Amino acid sequence: MTEPTAPADLDFSRPTIARAYDRLLGGKDNFEADRQLADHAIQHIPGLQESALENREVLVRGVRHLAGELGVDQFLDLGSGLPTVQNTHEVAQAANPDARVVYVDIDPMVLVQGRAILDENHRTNVITGDVREPDGVLGDPGVRDFLDFDRPVVVMLVGMLHYLSPEVADAVVSRYRDALAPGSYLFLRSLVNTGLPAQEELARITRENLEEGWARAPEDIEHHFGDFELIDPGVVYTALWRPDEPVDANNLTAGQQLGMAGLGRKKA
Ligand SMILES: C[S@@+](CC[C@H](N)C(=O)[O-])C[C@H]1O[C@@H](n2cnc3c(N)ncnc32)[C@H](O)[C@@H]1O
Predict the structure, then answer these.
(1) CA pair distance 33, 76, nearest whole angstrom
(2) Mutation to probe ligand 1, out of 58, 160, 210 (largest number of atoms < 8 A from CB)
(3) What are the residue ranges in the chain where pLDDT is below 70?
(4) What is the pLDDT of residue 1?
(5) Is 59 close to ligand 1, i.e. is its CB under 6 Å away?
(6) CB-based contacts of 248: which residues, under 8 Å, 6+ apart?
(7) DSSP secondary-structure letter at 25?
(8) Helix, strand, or coil here: 236?
(9) Closest C-alpha among 166, 215, 165, 164 to residue 193
(10) DSSP code string of 127-194
(11) pTM (2 decimals)?
């Protein structure tokens, strides 16, 4: 298999979250160590790839709803991942060509791959940053000068909340909430813990190989919305969050029970 090209100073001997996730999605921006980890996880966690695809699908549904029906035109996509199909800026700008999007990711390869997007889209920006350092992210000129925090902004932690340990998540997510104007939104999707062994097993494999990985109880995901108003249907299994086609809640597959999503709005 031909390896993707990337700067020589990146370490490809160890897997990264972004590249292993790219492998789960069937992308080509990954290396041997990423493929080994992703393939190991696929073997141990039934429905893992389905869950990764479902994560992308809910991101698309959410951004379409936010930029379309809810009329929000600023997005801060935290832990955005490597560019793939139907990226946040493409979905948002299809609904509203003026929508502005900043991608933030800790993996420097996201910026490398994102440069092509920047060259052709002046309403989109990409920065390298650590979500666990909200003041650094919010104070970065690539965020601060690009988005207007006096107006509504969507903060997205989609497929990302579970990389924040319980110890840091509270302070970090509340700092992002506090930075937002009324009418702003928080969009979360996380690995969930409803007592199924595969959920905790996936968190363990992730923690052991990628340092962070935490499966949260549904009420702990909900807790991160603080006093934001939860938009219907609340925090639910991802497939049940505003699906395009009806989904039988009593017949979810193993993969569909790995993650939950929710959207909240900051009150006036
Ligand atoms: C599973 S991917 C999700 C990508 C995208 N949000 C999606 O839903 O398809 C998680 C991303 O979060 C990034 N990430 C993990 N921890 C991070 C941190 N502390 N700061 C910034 N990015 C982080 C990883 O590099 C990876 O690209």
Answers:
(1) 30
(2) 160
(3) 1-2, 4-8
(4) 54
(5) yes
(6) none
(7) T
(8) strand
(9) 215
(10) EE--TT-HHHHHHSHHHHTTS-TTS--EEEEETTGGGS-HHHHHHHHHHHHHTSPTT-EEEEEEEB-S
(11) 0.97
